[in-house]
Give the backbone structure.
Amino acid sequence: MTSWPPIPAALASIWPHALWALALILLIASLGCIAVTLRSPRRPLVYCAAGLLAAAVIVVLIPLQHAPFVYQLLIGITALALAVLGGWPASQLVLALATRDTTRPSPHDGILVRALTPEGETTREVLRGGTTIGLLERLAAAGTIMAGFPEGLAVLIAIKGVGRFTELEQAEARERFIIGTLTSIVWACVCAGVFRIVAG
């Protein structure tokens, strides 16, 4: 007479659910760090958010099966929010480390660069609207990965490159454009990748 399954069998059925729940908690914690740093930029919180995201990637790789729909839904929503919101602090941190804060921000989310005119040297604003474009860029990037259409990334990068082409004359603008775009898209793809692993 057996009333309970053997302990190993019970653990085998519970273990994947525990891992998916842990992955969700890690993503929520990462999103919390990002939410705090959006109001008050703090580098340690960005590092912490990136570490929690990396841990979530490792955790979802362990179960060799697809997660139930509820976990897919919750992880998908959290991962998408983290992809869209987290890319901005991550990009700002990488840009600050790479450029050593040599560029001056402009009032419209761009940067000020030196330009030569017939009247002499002056400054002009390039890469306007970077924050808004970044949000839309990460939403599109994460969306294409989560939908199983990674080819959409090529279209996204092409559109952004064509739209910014005339502003990339100065080295500072080119450097900021490349570093910021790559960081933003990589962050979004990693977040979306968590969902793809869980969804199968």
User: Anything to note?
Assistant: Confidence is low (pLDDT under 50) at residues 1-5. Residues 65 and 147 are 19 Å apart (CA to CA). The longest strand covers residues 111-117.
